[in-house]
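Two proteins were folded this term; both appear here.
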Amino acid sequence: MTVPVLITLDFTPEHIARLQAISDELVIRQVRTRTPEGVAEALNQYPDTEVLYAIRLPTAWRSEWGVRWIQLHSAGVDHIPLDVIPPHVRITNASGIHAVCMAEHAFGMILALRRRLTDMMFAKPWHAWPPDRWALYARPLLRGQTMGILGYGAIGREIGRLAKAFGMRVLAYKRNPAQRADHTFVLPGTGDPEGRFPDAWFGPGELFRLLEESHVVVNTLPATRETEHLLNADAFRHMPPGALFVNIGRGRTVDETALVDALRTGALGGAALDVFEQEPLPAHHPLWSLDNVIISPHVSAAFPEYDDFAVALFAENLRRYLQEEPLLNEVNRQHGY
């Protein structure tokens, strides 16, 4: 018995060798492409593929393709035509492989906002210390403040772990707050698999309660029908004056017009944004002109070891697939993630 595996990413020979070493049953083929059309052509070339590794998927599905399981190279699935893929095909995502990177990125932006590090960078051309430096840069500590984390999955749990290291109170928001453990892919020593760090849990219908208590809000939510513009004018009004807002989830979860208003009026103290409703962010967008906003170009998940971590996850899932064990990070199509 053999299991044909088609990899469409640019994995190195060392990566392929690591995967091949899992079992002699695996027949691994590699066709490098990142487009839906390219993946379709690769499947036409190898229609007996049982396991597909890809970042993009065809927009139409052919009955002669033998795919039974798709491992995605990304955590988000909002760019995937889920309605096209036959229901018998299992889909797993890459959730967890970039949790550390994204949590570090979020905290880097939080510290830059809170300590006004960008102001210090802009002041360098003056070649002098400001006379009012204490008034400018004496900033409230994170320690003792409250962080609200929207989406307590792999990324949110690593952010929660770091927040606890900073001495912060942690509030967690998720679809089912009664389900506190999360046994998806996690790097050893990171995250919060058992859900031990939050001081309180909140579910749908309790968002405003969480926001009212949060000095810093970090959004990691996926883009679904339920989360679209969840962060709107009403939500921002429920945040404490001067609160900080960070978005490393999806741009569609935020009403950007309402966010701009809250930042202009001072209702929010600042925002750090890595994702936007339209990407790249248009040059005329008012967010570019706000001094209390940090913009990063959707790179919070970018780090040199991305493929190494992705292969580690794929290797574990391949082992589980061959042993008929539950796969890590299986996508719930109804939920959209």
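Next, the second protein.
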Amino acid sequence: MMMRQQKAMEAFHRYPRDDGDKLAPGSSVYDLNSSTYGYLVNICKQEYPCPPLVFLYAKMSLHRYNFAQGTMFELIRVQKYVKSTGSANASYYMTLDAIDSAGSLQTFQNKVSEYSVGRFILTCPIARIRGEPIDGKGFSTLVDSTLPECPAVNPFDTYYLVKESELLENPWIRLYLELAVAKTDRHYEDRGAGLADLEIVDVAIDEGQGLNANNAVFYIRYKDLYKANPGHDLVRIAIVRRNFDEAMGRLTLVGQTQSSDVIPNMTKIANEEDTGCSSFKGQIQSPEHPTQISSPLGISEDHEEANQLAMMNLRVEEAAGDSMELDSPSAQDA
């Protein structure tokens, strides 16, 4: 581990920077045409399409832009993405095309970073039209990585239920669900497998927060028709916390999925993760005597080490100027 840290620091010192602590002209990560130390360049073509997870990350980054700017851009395609290497957690620098409601086609240069192995903890510190200045500081500081838990009351009985019309007007709610499932329920298969087969049943949110609040927790009850077979729960719940830091210009999404069986008097499912969620007549309650249950999201010592290294690499990456590379002359003239 120490050797990998030393290599990361060597890469930091080798990275070209000018006197203003910005990347030198031509050094933008987004403008890389071939892979180099620490970065893997991927061009998305018809014969080599963009992976489903990267496509979701691109949608998340556009959501970050729309949320901050009050726009309604929709993803058209991902031209290419540059993936950081050297740790299990990666940053994705994506060049993508999107169109707004008026038909204006724009090219974006966005970034999404993973913060934990095998968990749904994502940040988007950069999302902008190529050539535009960065809103906010554009780099990451400490992220609240605690997973959101079920409340002591049934949110679908107590909290505000999102209307069907609001679901249609806010497609990012489904994006939250797809990200939660792809990051937590699709460990041993294609990350995009069965996402089209997810059916939203209810969405609840605390009335004190609201759909457009910077800080909000969403409770999404859904049917996973892709895994509708013995041994898997048909009805589940995704819990997603959103935080948008205006000063930093950073969107953070943290969440997980849980079992939520609606059969009356159903006892807690044996392999359900113990975070306070149990299913009794479709309600979400806190168990009286929590027990330690092994979970596919459990972090081993190796994962903890990988996470620590990834956090260090990300800080080195940010310190090297990845939040400012878009201000380089080459990026602005592109």
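The chain has a mean pLDDT of 74. Residues 98 and 150 are 35 Å apart (CA to CA). These notes refer to the second protein only.
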